[in-house]
Design a protein that fits this description.
about 250 residues, alpha/beta, six-stranded parallel β-sheet, 9 strands
């Protein structure tokens, strides 16, 4: 989808299924994809299980929505989020949604919003069921948003940090995915533009993110794999390089 302005996003948070500890990092991540026009969080605020959220709502201008659990064992929060999402969709005031939850109950909502032409970003823990991840255009794990101030001390204590590892040590399936995607896009000489490769990887796996493997960007991840060749070409702008990749 093409935008002529910074995309307006509706951020809807499921307080029952998301910890509050990394809300600052989460909102900073969302800001990379657009401007949060709506920021709402849903839960039964009479319950002690969501009390931690109360201390961060005002600081980050998140509007709490009270939803009582009418029946034991039934999650009324999900219904409230879904109803609000559809109301916001039909208001025409946003270009996309960010659904913050680890609950697969939002799978159909994400699918419906994308059918309506909305950009849908999911954020949740690594325990999030695959159907919800697949229903989103992009899915970001909360675990990779945690602060890393103690990175150097961890490296000393563990000997070898994640960022020191080659991807071969981490996930052979990723290497196959990258190879297959290069073959899908490559020109007659086997080269593919790195930006196009990243877009295809994300379409195939919405939860693809170099940070899942200890790399901040796509290029360092590719360079860490000795099965690929990288060519950085001059773009005519001395500050910009066009990066191409192919299989060795």
């Amino acid at each position: 989808m093409e935008y002529t302005h910074d995309p307006r996003l509706a951020v809807l948070i499921d307080a029952d299924n998301i910890p509050y500890a990394n809300v600052k990092e989460m909102l900073e991540e969302i800001a990379k994809y657009g401007t949060p026009t709506f920021k709402r969080i849903y839960g039964d605020w009479t319950k002690p299980t969501v009390s931690g959220w109360k201390t961060v709502l005002l600081e980050h201008a998140i509007t709490p929505v009270q939803q009582y659990a009418y029946t034991a064992g039934k999650n009324a929060t999900d219904s409230a989020m879904i109803i609000d999402a559809m109301d916001i969709l039909y208001s025409g005031k946003v270009d996309g949604f960010c659904i913050v939850s680890s609950d697969s109950d939002f799978t159909r909502l994400a699918t419906r919003l994308r059918e309506a032409g909305m950009k849908v970003i999911g954020i949740g823990e690594k325990k999030t069921p695959k159907p919800f991840i697949s229903a989103c255009e992009k899915f970001i794990y909360l675990e990779i948003l945690k602060p890393t101030e103690n990175k150097n001390s961890d490296k000393k204590s563990k000997g070898k940090s994640t960022s020191d590892k080659t991807v071969e040590d981490i996930d052979e399936r990723l290497i196959k995915l990258i190879k297959d995607s290069i073959n899908d896009l490559a020109d007659e000489n086997g080269w593919v533009f790195l930006g196009e490769l990243g877009s295809l990887l994300l379409k195939k796996h919405p939860n693809f993110d170099p940070r899942n493997y200890g790399f901040n960007k796509m290029l360092p991840l590719i360079k860490s794999i000795n099965k690929f060749e990288v060519d950085e070409r001059d773009s005519g702008n001395k500050n910009i390089k066009l990066v191409y990749v192919r299989i060795k």
